[in-house]
Amino acid sequence: MDYEWNVKKTEGQPAIGYEFICEAKANNIQVMAAIYCFPKLDQFGSHKIATVTVFWECTKSEITDGFFHWVLDDIGQIIKERESLIFDKSLDSIEIMLTQQFFCKKLPNLEYFTHGDYYIGGEK
Predict the structure, then answer these.
(1) What is the C-alpha to C-alpha distance for residues 104 and 81, in angstroms, rounded to an integer?
(2) What is the radius of gyration, based on Cα positions, of the chain?
(3) Entry pTM
(4) Containing H/E element for 37?
(5) Number of compact structural domains in the chain
(6) Which domain holds residue 69?
(7) Could you tell me whether strands 49-56 and 17-26 are parallel, antiparallel, or unpaired per DSSP bridges?
(8) d(CA 52, CA 82)
(9) Would residue 118 count as lying in a domain?
(10) Structural domain contains residue 110
(11) How does pLDDT run across 40-95, given as a tens digit for each residue?
(12) Does some domain include residue 31?
């Protein structure tokens, strides 16, 4: 990382997971990531899962392939550093991030509400 990530918010607990809101300015582009780390979901066996929503304060044409991977690798590093501090070490490490990404004119002013999983299945 040639720039500093600022972890603005951390919410959660080991049983239900943690939410991190991070911001950075990289290549003169503001980037915000909302990272949610699940401790364990039955659908994924003993794997911890991370979902990441990334907001880029720019247009699509300003993002190169290399820059895209640079930022996502940094977010992966943030997850790796934090997971060893907050989760049971007997579970497998997070290896995949499920991501969604948005371009915006101005980064959103996020206020934490809640997080977790939500079952939408029906009768079998």
Answers:
(1) 28
(2) 15
(3) 0.84
(4) strand 29-38
(5) 1
(6) 6-103
(7) unpaired
(8) 14
(9) no
(10) no
(11) 766 667 677 889 999 999 999 999 999 999 999 999 999 988 888 887 777 778 88
(12) yes
